[in-house]
Every structure is written in structure tokens, then in C-alpha cells.
Design goal:
This protein has 479 residues and is an alpha+beta fold. The protein contains seven helices and 26 strands. The relative contact order is 0.18.
């Protein structure tokens, strides 16, 4: 009986020592968490790849569950979408295209699933059986005909590179099907940065704000690449202080377009203070058809009809107005096309309006043609209600989305905005380790107290057994 008591005591003591060994791991995890807590109020810098002309979009990298994903950056939508391992192009057996990898929630230690409800006001279009439960199925349809069909999940998202990192527990869509251009994009998914009420899930920026980041982000855009800064503005990426215009609708980043002019002549067909959307996910500067006709008319009245492709006879085909045609223009010829200027009303107290002056080399996109670099007109018409300021206009600017103060700022980009997508946003101490794990202070205290009590109890039992054995030892006396 005494031996059994000692064995049980030793086994319990071993268990306590094993638990104590986890305290160091827990403390280390909490140290890592502390580092993140210290960083989460700093800005995170995400290098951008792509460009308005090269691939028609800008993309960056994020890390979830130890996997790095390449995602298109889009201020015209609010959801983050990634492909599941079994994601298919809708109506086919073709796997959804990816570059880096697919998101597998069954292998993530941090994933949770929002409850599924299909009642009035719910984001769930249906409840779908997945990973042993009934999950909230969501879908998003985009203006270019793309569609995403997904399971709503929540997981830890890491962004940034080097010491400029941030993280947040965020809701996003894990796609089981895609359609339209979404199914052919050379990325792993889409990173929407617009306001949460535009989509069917809380947006990623709101998740970072809830985690302590300031409610602001900025993007410096070059013809090729650039940088996304979450939680701040990197002034090294701009040559002057920004000028701001007010956000007039907290859905998209909508602002008022004061005027559009060509070589100093205002385009009369574009209303003063027309609502426009600032959208990094759109390649061109798009105008509604009636406004585009007025713009084209004003442009032709200010241009030399002898310039290549002017189309002064009104024809669009095989002219600069045909955005599928590339023109081989030398610098001297290109400089003879008119300058286009956009103005935006100033925010209160600023004094001067925001003025974006676009030279021909700015609004004619530089692309690779069969015979070398050539130019494509970056202004076009669309079946839209309001103009969309796409990457054609935004490139060569540091664009500040100051959500906290409801304003968008513009500053000319500097040569420092030359980051490369080769940076991998994965802190060296994060290799799939879920920072939300680790022992809480209460748990650590209880384990320590339990181990001390158990040790003292075992020591007491051992002392009692030894003393009893001595008393019961026979006294043989002298021989």
C-alpha cells in the first residue's frame, strides 16, 4: 500500500513537472504576443507587386496559419477571399487558380467559424456542411463579372515585412467556387480594404483597428510595385505633404470630383462635385458614357489631329480611344498630347484644393508590345453611374485613406517607393505558432501552486513512510 502511494505521488509529480515545463513555452508565447502587442500600434509595411499596366492590378502578401498568400489589393471591395483546397471554377472541375497556396482551415489552430443564420439581415446566403458543421456560406458579385462563393471563417492574419508587421483576428471568405475574371487572376485571392458595410463580413481594416492600429492606411503606387502601409503614412514615400479631400460616403472611398480639364479647358459634361470612387482594384480612369463623350470632345478640341491615333474623325477603332490598341510613341511625340487635370475640393481649413496634373506619360500606360514598350490610353468609358478613379490616375502618388478623419490625401510619390514583392511578410519568430495560444497568468499561478502542494504532499508521505519503517525495524541488539 505504501509503495502504491509513492508511485501515485511520483506520477502526479511527473504530471505537475510536465505542466510546469509548459509554463516556459506559455511564457515564451506570451513574450511573442507581447512583442506583437507593442507593434500593433505601429504601421505595417506591405510591399506591392504588379502595376496598372503590367498586370492590371497591384498585389501583396499576407500570412495565415504559416502559409503565405498573394492577394490583389482592392479599395473598391471590403472582403478578404482565399481559395479552399477543393475550390473549383463554378460549373467545372477546374481548380481555382492560385500562385502560392490554398487556405485549409482544418489545419489551422486558430480558425473559428461564425454562426450560420439565414434570417433577415444575415450575411449568410445558406448554411453549408463543411469541416464537421453547418457553416455560413457567403457570396460576393463584382462589377467586372467576377464572383466569389465561400465559407465564412475567422483566423489570425499577419501582414508586413521585417520589423514593420501587424496581426489581427479577422473574418474572411474561404472560397469553394469562383466565376468570371476572378477565376483567371494570377493571385491566391483578393484583399478588400473598403468599409465593412460594403461587404457581408467585417472588413480587415476594421479588424486591425480593433486590435489597436490607427484607422488609416496608405498606398504609394509606382508604374511597377509600391507599398501598402496599414496603420499610418510613411512620409519617405512622398516628396511633399499631402493635400486632402473629404470622403463623402463611407462605403467605397467616395469623394467629390470638382472638375476635369484638358489643357486648361474644363470638360462641361462632367458635373461639378460629381461623386467618384477611388479604387485601386480598377485599372483605368472610367467615366460614364455621356461624360466620356464630353471628355473626348474636349480632348480632341485641344489636341493636334496630326498626332498618331487621334481619331479626330470620331472613329474609336484603331485610335488612341481603343484601349486594346498599343501605340509606339517616342518621348517627343508623347509629350505633344494634351495634359489632363483633375481637381477635388479641399477639406475644411486646408485652403487649396487637391489638383492632380496628369502628363501624357501618366495617363498613357506603358505596356510591353510585340515590338517593345508601347502606350495604351488609360481613360475609357463604362456602364457606370459615377466615375471611377483607378490605378491609371493613382500611380505615381502616395494615396492616404484617412478613415479616422474621413478624408483621402494625395502626394507625389518619391523614389523611396520602390519596394519589391520578394519580401515575405512572416516574422522570423512566427512559423505557424498561434500567438493566441499560451497559458494565461491565472493558469500559470494555479499550476505552480498545485505543483508546490503536490511536492510537499509527496515529501510528507515519503517522510511518514521512512519514519514508520524505522520504528518497525527489529532491534537485534548486540551479538
Amino acid at each position: 500500500m505504501q509503495q502504491k502511494a509513492i508511485i501515485v505521488c511520483l506520477l502526479l509529480l511527473i504530471q505537475a513537472l510536465a505542466a510546469l515545463s509548459q509554463i516556459q513555452i506559455g511564457l515564451e508565447r506570451r513574450r511573442i504576443t507581447s512583442e506583437f502587442l507593442q507593434r500593433r500600434k505601429r504601421d505595417a509595411i506591405l510591399p506591392l507587386g504588379g502595376g496598372a499596366a503590367s498586370v492590371g492590378m497591384y498585389f501583396t502578401q499576407i500570412t495565415i496559419g504559416g502559409t503565405v498568400f498573394r492577394v490583389a489589393v482592392d479599395t473598391g471591395s471590403s472582403n478578404l477571399y482565399l481559395s479552399l483546397p477543393d475550390c473549383k471554377v463554378q460549373g467545372t472541375d477546374i481548380p481555382c487558380p492560385v500562385i502560392s497556396g490554398r487556405y485549409d482551415p482544418t489545419k489551422s489552430r486558430n480558425v473559428t467559424y461564425p454562426a450560420c443564420s439565414t434570417g433577415s439581415g444575415s450575411a449568410c446566403v445558406s448554411c453549408k456542411d463543411y469541416a464537421g458543421g453547418s457553416r455560413c456560406a457567403i457570396e460576393t458579385l463584382y462589377g467586372d463579372g467576377s464572383a466569389a462563393y465561400a465559407i465564412a471563417v475567422r483566423d489570425t492574419v499577419f501582414v508586413g515585412s521585417g520589423s514593420k508587421t501587424a496581426w489581427a483576428n479577422a473574418n474572411f471568405g474561404a472560397m469553394y467556387a469562383t466565376a468570371g475574371p476572378f477565376a483567371t487572376d494570377q493571385t491566391d485571392g483578393l484583399l478588400g480594404l473598403a468599409y465593412s458595410n460594403l461587404g457581408n463580413l467585417p472588413g480587415l481594416i476594421d479588424a486591425f483597428v480593433a486590435n489597436g492600429q490607427p484607422d488609416i492606411f496608405s498606398m504609394c503606387l509606382n508604374e511597377q510595385g509600391g507599398a501598402l502601409v496599414i496603420g499610418g503614412v510613411n512620409t519617405a514615400y512622398q516628396t511633399t505633404s499631402p493635400l486632402y479631400t473629404a470622403i463623402i460616403e463611407q462605403l467605397y472611398y467616395s469623394v467629390s470630383l470638382g472638375s476635369v480639364s484638358v489643357a486648361g479647358t474644363a470638360v462641361s459634361g462632367i458635373p461639378n462635385n460629381a461623386k467618384v470612387m477611388v479604387d485601386t482594384g480598377t485599372t483605368l480612369f472610367l467615366l460614364p458614357r455621356s461624360q466620356y463623350a464630353s471628355f473626348k470632345s474636349t480632348y480632341l478640341s485641344k489636341a493636334d489631329c496630326n498626332l498618331p491615333g487621334m481619331g479626330c474623325d470620331g472613329a474609336k477603332e484603331n485610335s488612341i480611344w481603343d484601349t486594346s490598341v498599343c501605340w509606339y510613341l517616342n518621348a517627343q511625340t508623347l509629350a505633344r498630347y494634351p495634359t489632363v487635370t483633375l481637381t477635388f475640393p479641399a477639406v475644411a481649413g486646408q485652403g487649396q484644393p487637391v489638383t492632380l496634373t496628369l502628363s501624357p506619360s501618366h495617363y498613357f500606360l506603358l505596356v510591353d508590345g510585340d515590338k517593345g514598350p508601347c502606350r495604351v490610353m488609360g481613360i475609357d468609358e463604362g456602364d457606370i453611374t459615377n466615375p471611377i478613379i483607378g490605378a491609371t490616375i493613382l500611380q505615381n502618388y502616395n494615396v492616404i485613406f484617412d478613415r479616422a478623419n474621413r478624408r483621402v490625401g494625395f502626394a507625389p510619390v518619391s523614389t523611396a517607393c520602390n519596394l519589391d514583392i520578394a519580401f515575405v511578410p512572416q516574422p522570423p519568430f512566427y512559423r505557424g505558432l498561434p500567438i493566441t495560444q499560451g497559458l494565461s497568468p491565472t493558469a500559470v499561478t494555479l499550476i505552480v501552486v498545485f505543483a508546490i502542494i503536490l511536492f510537499l504532499a509527496c515529501a510528507g508521505i515519503a517522510f511518514f513512510i521512512i519514519m514508520r519503517a524505522r520504528r518497525n525495524r527489529p532491534n537485534l541488539g548486540p551479538m
